[in-house]
Each structure stands twice: as structure tokens, then as C-alpha cells.
Amino acid sequence: MITPQVAVAMDWGGTWIRTAVINRQGDILWQAREPNPQNGTKEQYLAHAEQLLATAIEHAGGPVAGIGAAVAGPVEPTTGTFYQPPNLKVLDGVSFNALWEDKFSLPVWVGNDANLAAMGEFYFGAGKQSAEQGQPVKSLFYVTVSTGVGGGAVDNGRLFLGANGLTAEIGHTIVNPSGDALNCECGSRGCLETAASGTSIARIAKIRLAASEFPDSVLAGLEPDNVDSEAVFDAAQRHDPLAVSILDGVVSALAIGLTNVVHLFNPDMIVLGGGVTVGLVKLDLLTAIKNQILGRAMSELHKEFQLTSAALGDSVGLVGAAALVWQQLDKAQE
What we know:
alpha/beta; 5-stranded mixed β-sheet
């Protein structure tokens, strides 16, 4: 009997869905990316995802060890059930494990995308790089700053999941308790996600443009549909005052949220990923974030952490989903 050496991985975000074939070393052997259906029904979302998984299994070219899926929202880890996902609301209550194990005749493991990204970075990304440089990582906290904001924690190689698998939801910690804080998709207001996500950067830019702040901003000359987070970062590179002001707010919000992470989890590595992080790195703003955290940290030991961007780039969720497959299979053989 041939022992499968590849896993099929899926990274299902609020905007895109990606699939890949990945080996035990974390190498991506094949991958594809497609947008989610626009305003689709639950049935349309599921049919699209299952079609992509079937295509990935075909590209594996042989036995598949299992399917790992990283999905954008809170997930109960035993059944792979979505609970009130802010950016994929029509999938609330769907249990992926039973659904896909029956359909594909393969073991299936599903986890929150940020949790699995943490796992990917720990084993195959920034954590691995740090270990190779003689500085092994004990506790890694990952934050994805993209369509939404999520977090994941790995402690000594194991995901820290909490009682129901719903821990590390940093995007829904409060960073702005004031009365004028923005409403969040989760139903609260003033969450980190409302201040730092790509969606919220665009939202904030449009609100401030409508208020005629900085009327000479290059953003004021754009069609409203073109005022997105990428446009804000592009404008900030050109020293546009409105864009710079918006990103100052992003830096401040992230620094508050990550200071809480430092005090709650005491990580020795914090990894930032997602599309917004790409822009922050390009503008060299991670240093400003870390300096603000250091200014608030309660002790010198809390300051002993690395802050870095994801080494796996936008493949981090895929690699983390595959890492979950390998870890669960190895655990079953212990």
C-alpha cells in the first residue's frame, strides 16, 4: 500500500478561495485561486468549494492523505462547524467535516484560517526560519490583517484553541470604546477589525472624504468604487496627508491590539500576514507598531518578542491547513 505523501489544502477567505496540493515538507506542488460567488447562496458557495477541492484531488496525481481547510471565521474544531462567520454569513452552522468526508471519502480537518496560519508559520515559515538561525520559537501569535482581522496562537507546537476552539479572535477585541467608533460585522463596535482591516481602511477613507477632510487629497479625485485599501497605501507612499492620517490610525489600533496580545499570551514571536500587512511592510510601518507596543509593555520580559511579517506570504493559510492534516495523522498514529 502506498503511503500518501500529499495533502489537499483549502484557504477560504471572505473574498477568495484557494486550493493546493502540498507535501509533508510544506512545499506547494500545485495551487489555484478563484473569487467567491458574488452574494451567493449557501448552496452556491458549497458547490463552488467542492468543485475546487475535486480539481485539487485530481491534480494530486495519486493517493491523498486528507483534506485540510482554513476558513474565515470561528470554527468548532471537532466537527468543523462554522459559527457566525462575519464575512461568510450564509455558511453559518455548516459542518464541513461530515459533509466533505462523505463526499470525497477522505479524512477532513477544518480550522479557523488565522489559527492554521499560525501553525503554518510556526512549522514552515517565520518560526522555522528563526529556529534555523538558532532562536527557536516557543510561543507564536499570528494576526491576519486582510478583508477581516483574525488571530491564532501556537504554544510549543500545539494550537491554543480554548474551550470551543474560538480563542485568539483579536479582530474582535475593542480598540476604540468611544461613542463614534464604527460598527463591526460581529455586532459590536470599536473592534480592531473596524480600524485596521482592508475593508475598514476603505470605509474610513470614504467617510473622511465625505466629510471633506483634506479636499486636496489624491483620494478625492478617485471614483468612490476605486477608493480601497490599496489606493490608500498608494496615496500614502506619495505622502498624501489623508492617507497618511488613516494609516496612522491603523498603526495605533494594531499597536493597542498587539499590546493586549503581548500581555495575554506572552509570545516570543508575533507574525503579521494578509494584504494590509503587505502595505504596512512596504511603508516600513512594522517598526512604528513595535515601538508603540514596547512603550506600553508592562515589563522587560514582555518586550522580548520578534515582530515580523509572514514568511509564507499569502500561502500561509494553505500551508497551515496542510500542517493540520499532517499533525492530525501523526497524532492518530501515536
